[in-house]
Amino acid sequence: MPRRAFFPNPDNRPSGFSPVTRSGGVVFVSGQVATDSDGALVGEGDAAAQSAQCLKNVEAALNAAGATRADVTKITAFLIDAGDYPAYAEARLGFFGEPGPASSTVFVKGLVNPKFLVEIEAIAMV
């Protein structure tokens, strides 16, 4: 099946990658960071606010590809600081509820911008 690319904000298209792709009923959301629709950082220094914004961006990407948060089967989160895990986990629970999708969390040395504390990617089945 061919891969189709989607852009939640056509006025702010990244270069070199697609925020979300869909092949058949499988939707892949690229890692989403804590920026608003204009590309401005949301929640500097605040892992809870950044986690919430990342999930909001995941939802916008899903919607652009014809999916919803209910279709998400797997997420992976990348966190800079293990101490931020509780804030991220609370945001994840608030976003997905119980039972949530399969989930992995990876602690990394850094993300593309040193102000980013969290990045979240998702896979959904439609």
Description:
The chain has a single domain (about 5-10, about 20-125), classed as 60s Ribosomal Protein L30, Chain: A, CATH 3.30.1330. The chain is about 25% helix and about 30% strand. It has helices at about 45-65, 85-95; strands at about 5, 20-25, 25-30, 70-80, 100-105, 120-125. It has a 6-stranded mixed sheet with strand order 1-2-3-6-4-5, covered by helices on one side. The mean pLDDT is about 95.
Spell out the key features of this protein.
60s Ribosomal Protein L30, Chain: A, 24% helix, 6-stranded mixed beta sheet, 2 helices, 126 residues, alpha+beta, single chain
Return the CATH class: Alpha Beta
Shape: globular
Indicate the CATH architecture.
2-Layer Sandwich
| CATH superfamily annotation | RutC-like
- Class per helix and strand makeup: alpha+beta
Indicate the CATH topology. 60s Ribosomal Protein L30, Chain: A
Cα-to-Cα separation, first versus last residue: 15 Å
Count the domains: 1
Q: How confident overall, as mean pLDDT?
A: 94
Question: pLDDT under 50 segments (min length 5)?
Answer: none
Helix content: 10-25%
